[in-house]
Amino acid sequence: MKMFQQQFVIATRGRGLVDIGPEVARAVAASSIATGLCHIFCAHTSASLVITENADSRVHDDLETLLARLAPDGDPVLTHRSEGPDDMPAHMRSILTDTSLTVPVTDSQPGLGVWQGIYLWEHRHRPHERTVTVTVQGTVDPASAIEKPYP
Q1: Can you spell out the DSSP letters for 101-132?
Q2: Three-state secondary structure call for residue 138
Q3: 28 and 4 in contact (C-beta within 8 Å)?
Q4: Which residue ranges make up each domain of the chain?
Q5: Integer CA distances (angstroms), 145 to 23, 24, 56, 107, in order
Q6: Kind and range of the H or E element at 142?
Q7: What is Dmax (Cα atoms) for the chain?
Q8: Class of the domain covering 2-140
Q9: Angstrom distance (rounded) from CA 133 to CA 106
Q10: Chain mean position to CA 131
Q11: pLDDT digits (tens, 9 = 90+) for 28-87
């Protein structure tokens, strides 16, 4: 079993989804691992990671609408406002969506579905730099890859 780890920094433009799939795929390719697991971790409390639709940006808009209802900015019942009205809602959004993901590695690439993408979700309004760590573990030998059910 081989282990590989790589970090990269994502510059966000403020609240919204940033496609990090290409960076994750490059890390998986650099690992030389053919079959295994890829763990992706966001080292922040006001940003998160999600796997979601990668073809229609309206899905992203609708997800943002949902979180705006669940964790609205400036909610008067919230007491933590050290960095503004989006501070505590950003923390709430990150625990609702999570700061880590695990995806299979198949044939030396992330084993995602056709319509799936890996995104960093910035929950603050202003731009930030977010550190993401990708850890890949598995086997380098393609002969040990999982059997495919169809030829």
Answers
A1: EEEEEETTEE---TTEEEEEEE-SSS--EEEE
A2: strand
A3: no
A4: 2-140
A5: 23, 20, 32, 7
A6: none
A7: 58
A8: mainly beta
A9: 19
A10: 11
A11: 999 999 999 999 999 999 999 999 999 999 999 999 999 999 999 999 999 998 999 999
